[in-house]
Amino acid sequence: MPARPEKRATGDAAEAAARRLLEGEGLRLIERNVNYRFGELDLVMRDGDTIAFVEVRYRADDRYGGGLASVDRRKCRRIALAARAWLQRHPELADAPCRFDIVAASPAGLEWHRGAFTLDDL
């Protein structure tokens, strides 16, 4: 089921804000909103030689733990599968170091969690 328009607009705004934050920290956008049937990559960015796969999660409040807590093990696996598929489509980057970041967005602002999880966590 597609997201309601207002929810999608909020998510798009959070993603744009996350992109600005990361670009301000020196990362460069490679691709955004990459969809596979088994997962999605919000932002794929380059941080020096490293490819950062960035999940952006907006939560209006932290009643259930906020954006970071909403990325559970199942979601991490889906992101990792999508990252693997993306790297297969970009063999020139397949040997680059990679990491998984999460940007937790809320009305209070953004929190960037660099290296929020690793494949060993899965």
TrEMBL record:
<dbReference type="InterPro" id="IPR011335">
    <property type="entry name" value="Restrct_endonuc-II-like"/>
</dbReference>
<dbReference type="GO" id="GO:0003676">
    <property type="term" value="F:nucleic acid binding"/>
</dbReference>
<protein>
    <recommendedName>
        <fullName>UPF0102 protein N790_14665</fullName>
    </recommendedName>
</protein>
<dbReference type="Pfam" id="PF02021">
    <property type="entry name" value="UPF0102"/>
</dbReference>
<comment type="similarity">
    <text>Belongs to the UPF0102 family.</text>
</comment>
<dbReference type="InterPro" id="IPR011856">
    <property type="entry name" value="tRNA_endonuc-like_dom_sf"/>
</dbReference>
<dbReference type="InterPro" id="IPR003509">
    <property type="entry name" value="UPF0102_YraN-like"/>
</dbReference>
